Amino acid sequence: MFSYEHLAAFCATVEEGSYSQAARKLQKDRTTIREQIKALEDSYAVTLFEIQARRP
């Protein structure tokens, strides 16, 4: 199951192209954004982002 926070983190990461920029947009810590994405990945057993050159 996912929450609005998980969805917001995912959408911001897609739009901004990085966890850091998504965190700035949502006024959260980068680690929080990554943890929310990781929770989604674990819940649905999927990989949402592949990290390339430190960017999702």
Based on the model shown, name its key terms.
56 residues; globular; DNA-binding transcription factor activity; mainly alpha
Please sum up the structure shown.
It is built from 3 helices and no strands. By secondary structure, it is an all-alpha fold. It comes from Vibrio maritimus.
How would you describe the overall organization of this protein?
Residues 2-56 form the HTH lysR-type domain. InterPro entries: LysR_HTH_N, WH-like_DNA-bd_sf, WH_DNA-bd_sf. Pfam families: HTH_1 (PF00126). This protein has 56 residues and is an all-alpha fold. Helix 2 (19-26) crosses helix 3 (30-44). It has one domain (4-44). It has 3 helices and no strands.
Chart the SSEs and their pairings.
Layout: H1 4-16, H2 19-26, H3 30-44
GO molecular function, one term: DNA-binding transcription factor activity
Pfam family, one: HTH_1
Domain HTH lysR-type: 2-56
- Roughly what is the average pLDDT, rounded to an integer? 91
**Uncertain ranges:** none
Number of helices: 3
Structural class: mainly alpha
